[in-house]
Design brief:
The protein has about 475 residues and is of the alpha+beta class. It has three domains: about 150 residues, Beta-Lactamase (2-Layer Sandwich), CATH 3.30.450; about 110 residues, Beta-Lactamase; about 180 residues, Alpha-Beta Plaits (2-Layer Sandwich), CATH 3.30.70. Helix content is about 35%, strand content about 30%. The strands form five sheets. The chain has a six-stranded mixed beta sheet with strand order 14-15-13-18-19-20, sandwiched between helices. It is rod-shaped, with a radius of gyration of 47 Å.
């Protein structure tokens, strides 16, 4: 506006009427060099140009020029301004602007003009200012038209890009070199609970609360230093403290001499998947390591019906329930399962010699000794009389042999007193492991029972393994 005032003052340095001037010398306009694409048009009150100049041409002083605009019309001194506008609706718009300026308004407008068919459209920043004579009357207008088409198209592209980035499902976050947020889309608002106005300018770690697993931060830093990009899964936090998981893609931006100038992170919410994976893992671990205590708590009201009243081991009926469950789980999840069948050596002789009370005491102490070497997930059950079964979940043949070795040592170190004497205890056992070709749990019991029979036939205090063909003590 200051420029307009200066130009108007230079142009009207006497009190003569603008309509009376047939020509205005370029020297009366002065020296001005703005950017290319700016037109200065001085009109009288009827809209007829008295001088037209296009800036940015060679020389110190703007020179009169013809203007062949996008509409195909040519502007010249003495031609009415409205006649150079191709479209009727554009002419009406310009006429309204002229009338407002002639009424004394100073206007700065951004408007689009084009040809009659609408194929070519050009954006202008039009600045209208009335020209006053020394008596204060309006004698004409100064119109400065600046071609802003490139800027408007750039703004449209920017708005479209911002619209697209706000509609994508992933959170898009840009930061400066100090990790301060300078872009935060709508998906980021939904994912983290922080609005754009709250997030901008804040440290990204303060907002996202990233929790790195051991070594992950250093590994990511090294990869970024070399590749300038890194992708991985990160645990972060919502504004309300809730844990969230994201699949993060991080890219650093650098220039030639300043190094890193910022970065952009694209985070996709994978919380539901991670929670499902964690739940699956926990479920699998729970199945693999069936906790005897939890199982008892779950069916506490049935504990008595499941337990052998003498030894405290599970009874035969409940043993087969557990066997069915473990056998099905072993086949479904392709995990090992072993069964041990054992009985107490010479129990009948002990009963006949020392009485059934002594025999019962031996059974009780034997079960205690065996339990001391079992995991919570393992099961011991009284199969019948002096015969017992041990169900070893998630254990193959070698694992079962290790357990049996400990059990044998423990049982052999167990003694009871009877008739003033110390009686030792030994057991005979057979081991069988589930095989892929088995389709019924009874087959596993049959194999373990055959192995036990082989152990007893080879003497006492022996162990046999069912190998599919014959039982090996």
């Amino acid at each position: 506006l200051l420029l307009v005032a200066v130009l108007a003052a230079l142009l009207y340095n006497d009190s003569s009427d603008v309509r009376a001037q047939s020509h205005v010398s370029p020297t009366q306009i002065g020296v001005w060099r703005p950017s290319t694409g700016t037109w200065i048009i001085y009109t009288d009150v009827l809209g007829e140009p008295v001088i037209i100049a296009q800036t940015g041409q060679a020389g110190d002083v703007p020179v009169p020029a013809d203007y062949d605009g996008d509409g195909g019309a040519e502007i010249a001194v003495g031609m009415n301004m409205l006649d150079c506008i191709a479209r009727e609706d554009d002419r009406r718009k310009a006429k309204q602007n002229f009338d407002r300026a002639l009424a004394g308004e100073i206007l700065i407008l951004e408007e689009e003009y084009g040809d009659e068919k609408g194929h070519i459209r050009v954006w202008w920043e039009d600045r209208y200012a009335p020209i006053y004579d020394k008596r204060g009357g309006i004698v004409g207008l100064t119109v400065v038209a600046i071609d802003i088409t490139d800027r408007k198209r750039a703004e449209e592209r920017t708005r479209f890009l911002a619209f697209v980035m706000d509609k994508v499902s992933s959170a898009i976050i840009a930061t400066d070199k100090n990790l301060r947020v300078n872009y935060w889309n709508e998906s980021a608002e939904r994912l983290y609970g922080w609005s754009e106005s709250e997030a901008l300018g804040r440290d990204i770690d303060e907002i996202c609360g990233t929790v790195f697993v051991e070594g992950q931060h250093e590994f990511a830093r090294q990869i970024l230093a070399i590749e300038k990009t890194w992708r991985g899964e990160l645990k972060q936090r919502h504004r309300n403290g809730a844990e969230i998981w994201v699949d993060a893609s991080v890219t650093l931006f650098e220039d030639g001499w300043r190094g890193a100038i910022g970065g952009v992170t694209i985070n996709h919410d994978v919380t539901e998947r991670k929670l499902a994976e964690d739940e699956l893992r926990r479920t699998k671990e729970s199945i693999e390591q069936i906790n005897l205590t939890l199982r008892r708590a779950f069916e506490r009201e049935q504990l008595v019906s499941r337990t052998d009243s003498l030894t405290g081991a599970f009874n035969r009926r409940y043993f087969f329930e557990l066997l069915d469950y473990e056998f099905s789980a072993s086949r479904r999840y392709e995990r090992p399962l072993s069964l041990v069948m054992f009985d107490v050596d010479f129990l009948k002789k002990i009963n006949d010699t020392w009485g059934h009370q002594t025999g019962d005491e031996i059974l009780i102490e034997t079960v205690k000794a065996v339990r001391a070497e079992l995991r919570d997930s393992d099961v011991i059950a009284r199969y019948g009389g002096d015969e017992f079964a041990i169900l070893l979940s998630n254990s193959g043949e070698q694992d079962a042999l290790i357990v049996l070795d400990r059990i044998y040592r423990r049982v052999q170190s167990t003694f009871i007193k009877a008739g003033g004497k110390k009686l030792g205890i030994t057991i005979s056992a057979g081991i069988a492991s589930a095989q892929p070709e088995m389709d019924k749990p009874g087959q596993l019991v049959l194999h373990a029972d055959r192995a036990l029979y082989a152990a007893k036939n080879s003497g006492r205090n022996r162990l046999a393994v069912f190998d599919g063909e014959e039982d090996s003590p």
